[in-house]
Amino acid sequence: MTSPRAQLNVLDLVPIAEGGSAAEAIAQTVDLARHAERWGYGRYWMAEHHNFRGVASSSTAVLIGHVAAHTSTIRVGAGGIMLPNHAPYVVAEQFGTLATMYPGRIDLGLGRAPGTDPATARALRRNEVAAMNFAAEVEEVQGYLGDPEPGASVRAIPGEGTHVPLWILGSSHGGAQVAAALGLPYSFASHFAPAALMSALDVYRRGFQASPLPGGLDAPRTMAGANVMVADTQAEAERLFTSVLERFRGIVTNQRSGLRPPAGSSPVQLLASWSPAERSAVAEMTRVSFVGTPADVRGQLADFTRATGVDEVIVTCGAFDPEARKRSLELLADAWQ
Prior knowledge:
By secondary structure, the protein is of the alpha/beta class. 45% of the residues lie in helices and 15% in strands.
């Protein structure tokens, strides 16, 4: 088999283990990022989530700076910042500062979902009008990070002239349309919402308009998310993956907790105790998941990139044990290369 062409990246949700702490989760993220850099992954992204007991990535820009400080070459970024939660000017200043400190290494993925529950969204002073005008908000960020405007009354300092690369994130056609219209790269969240993956990629590619603006593209560029769990045996990979299934069940039932240790010996044993509705919902959310030995997962991932035509894949591994998480990503990197 020829080598897969898609670039491989890591999405880290900075999971807090059941019985563990946020400090431990952040230390594990730094350790994993350093290893991912050595193993040849292209990007290391973290995502904005709020009021999740099992996730420590709420202050995403702060974490990006921390990880960038402890690595040397890997691109570090947001996958992503939920733009309607923030003033575009503040986002531009934050990422302009990061790009000034770590030139050529910072990515800014922008989404418009709240990344939390309604009550927390209100606490964030989320701007629903901004969510409806997402494209205009993206262009505002792009303007602040672009070339200095002579006579501009508001300037992002640091920020202007840094041209931080922007990505549009999404799980529906809306984000695809924005990315296409602005000529920006597009990343689809198929690691938890795969239903519209193929149609959204088609909407993006058919509607794509090349952009001469800083960060704009001449041709479409796409990325898709996937859950992975790689181990020396199929049985061990499936056992480790039960932690991921439990996390998704918590989302479905609104009973979210810290990342739990593996439950039972296999997904079949775990799912037998769930209701049919829970099994169906979790199965749909985790449809883009590749679990098994290095050779098997490599083949599944290669088939996925061929079927979707994506240029990059961003993988997330939800193993409870941080050493198993590292081992999984190391085995995948070796197999992919």
